């Protein structure tokens, strides 16, 4: 596709190449070239913190492939918002045709989104939301995180009322963590579940394990319910619980969100008690939005992808055909 701001892009690309802004995905970073027929898309991913994130990255890489008419410039920001914003600025300077962002945090996006808009490059958000005005991006596709938290909380109230709860929160300031916490609290209103503690494990297994070790040292066997904002933190917590001589699923009921393969295996094995799905397969929807926006077609500002929930029996049934 014809590049807007080609000369500005060239200067910017050279400057960024000199500062060593990282890209991968086999496309290099050079000016978003790749044949007039390909649509160049810069994708600013959060990082690689979880199994969900790997499945999401894979889904976007597949959908935004050359075979499908795209040239992808991929960047994973290691969960650091400054790095993610720098990647978006690099895409703007390279003069890509469109930018896709999975925003790490809700706040802090106004300036760079305005820069993309001023450069005439449409932005599609996927996965998490931002607090910036929706005039600054073309569309968002993702999940209803508040509903996910609420469904998890409803299960807890119905199956573990009166428990002593600890919570492993996702990345601080992310819409996934904020909205899941809101939904969970809403569901727990009027229940007798007592929250002993709540801390971030940053959506990682290591984080979940370390924070759970701290909870166990402090509260010991008083804990009998864990809500982890994602499977990976729940899986990390399993190690800590077993190392403390407790039996996950029996001494401590564990409710998580995502339903990635390892989480579903833990649920089928009786170690987790309930999972609310968070569907990471957003690639095709993103690719479709990019094409429509660039063609000047009108698109919905928000698209919510439906999630389901899994009990232990449902996990056993679903596991053999689960795609991620
Ligand atoms: O934003 C979605 C969340 O991010 C997933 O639930 C979690 O696993 C990931 O890191």
Automatic annotation (TrEMBL):
Question: Where does the signal sequence lie?
Answer: 1-22
**Which locations, inside or outside the cell, does it occupy?**
Cell envelope
What InterPro entries does this protein's entry cite?
Answer: Peripla_BP_I, SBP_2_dom
A Pfam family for this UniProt protein? Peripla_BP_4
Q: Which UniProt keywords apply?
A: Signal
Q: Does the keyword Signal apply?
A: yes
Where is each Periplasmic binding protein domain found? 42-297
Gene3D superfamilies in the record: 3.40.50.2300
Q: Which domain of life is it from?
A: Bacteria
PANTHER family (alphabetical): D-ALLOSE-BINDING PERIPLASMIC PROTEIN-RELATED, GALACTOFURANOSE-BINDING PROTEIN YTFQ
Q: Which family does it belong to?
A: Belongs to the bacterial solute-binding protein 2 family.
Protein name per the record = LacI family transcriptional regulator
Q: Which organism is it from?
A: Homoserinibacter gongjuensis
């Amino acid at each position: 596709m014809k590049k807007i701001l080609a000369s500005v892009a060239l200067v910017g690309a050279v400057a960024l190449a000199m500062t060593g802004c990282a890209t991968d995905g086999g496309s290099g970073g050079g000016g978003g070239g790749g044949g007039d027929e390909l649509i160049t898309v810069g994708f600013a991913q959060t990082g690689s913190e979880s199994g969900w994130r790997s499945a999401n990255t894979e889904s976007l890489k597949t959908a935004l492939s050359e075979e499908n008419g795209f040239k992808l410039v991929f960047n994973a920001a290691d969960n650091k918002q400054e790095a993610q914003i720098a990647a978006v600025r690099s895409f703007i300077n390279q003069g890509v045709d469109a930018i896709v962002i999975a925003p790490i945090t809700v706040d802090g996006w106004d300036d760079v989104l305005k820069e993309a808009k001023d450069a005439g490059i449409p932005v599609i958000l996927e996965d998490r939301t931002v607090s910036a005005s929706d005039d600054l991006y073309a569309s968002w596709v993702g999940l209803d995180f508040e509903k996910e938290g609420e469904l998890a909380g409803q299960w807890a109230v119905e199956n573990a009322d009166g428990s002593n709860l600890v919570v492993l929160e996702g990345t601080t300031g992310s819409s996934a963590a904020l909205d899941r916490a809101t939904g969970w609290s809403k569901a727990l209103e009027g229940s007798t579940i007592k929250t002993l503690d709540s801390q971030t494990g940053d959506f990682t297994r290591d984080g979940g394990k370390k924070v759970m070790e701290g909870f166990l040292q402090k509260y010991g066997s008083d804990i009998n319910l864990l809500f982890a904002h994602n499977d990976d933190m729940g899986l990390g917590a399993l190690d800590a619980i077993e190392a403390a001589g407790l039996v996950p699923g029996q001494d401590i009921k564990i409710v998580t969100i995502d339903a990635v393969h390892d989480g579903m295996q833990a649920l089928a094995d009786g170690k987790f008690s309930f999972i609310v799905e968070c569907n990471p397969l957003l690639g095709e929807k993103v690719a479709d939005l990019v094409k429509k926006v660039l063609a000047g077609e009108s698109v919905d500002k928000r698209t919510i992808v439906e999630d389901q929930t899994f009990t232990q029996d449902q996990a056993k049934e679903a596991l053999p055909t689960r795609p991620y």
